[in-house]
Amino acid sequence: MESVNEDWDTVRTVLEGETAAYALIIDRHQKHVGAVVGAHVPPQYAPEVAHETFVRAYRSLASYEPRKPFKHWLTTIALRSCTDFWRSHYRKKESPLSDFSKDTTQWLDAVCFTESESEFERLSQAREAKEILSLVLDMLAPLDRMILVMTQLEEYSSKETAELLEISSANVKVRAFRAKRTLKKLLKKHGIEGA
């Protein structure tokens, strides 16, 4: 509760004209915002999106109401920044195989042509699987991607996801269902069954 009061006191100080006090908010929440953003955008873009989050939060500071924790409010802005990143940097398209790294292409070829499960297990290195999942997730609509990552990989509940993204729980459930179905189709198209 002390942190909540500190945040509210700092927000009031900034709103009263001491803009330099905003550095306290950045210092206090930089790790948290970095973790949220780092989980949703490629690592090379994370600092840029985290910075954008703090800029947006500063511009919207007057709209913050202390009914909910500042950290929660800031998380919502960070997630919105991540969604906007995907909207601006990636068009909904299918990635040609040329977009995959040499290792990933070899892994996909092996998966497509291998008959034995033991060979598949041997080839399923975590690094390649993560890269493929990331590339396939990039093909989803930005909001669908965010919902799928939050509900399936980060294990947020539908209610928590809805609150953080400021949409309804029903919308989260429907989008998550559709995104999972689309993801399975995309993985199958790349020769990965039973995903």
From TrEMBL:
RNA polymerase sigma factor 70 region 4 type domain location: 132-183
Alphabetical list of InterPro entries matching this protein: RNA_pol_sigma-70-like (IPR039425), RNA_pol_sigma-70_dom (IPR014284), RNA_pol_sigma70_r2 (IPR007627), RNA_pol_sigma70_r4_t2 (IPR013249), RNA_pol_sigma_r2 (IPR013325), RNA_pol_sigma_r3/r4-like (IPR013324), WH-like_DNA-bd_sf (IPR036388)
Domain of life: Bacteria
Entry-linked Gene3D superfamilies: 1.10.1740.10, Winged helix-like DNA-binding domain superfamily/Winged helix DNA-binding domain
PANTHER family, per database record: RNA POLYMERASE ECF-TYPE SIGMA FACTO (PTHR43133), RNA POLYMERASE SIGMA FACTOR HI_1459-RELATED (PTHR43133:SF8)
Family under the similarity heading: Belongs to the sigma-70 factor family. ECF subfamily.
Descriptive protein name: RNA polymerase sigma factor
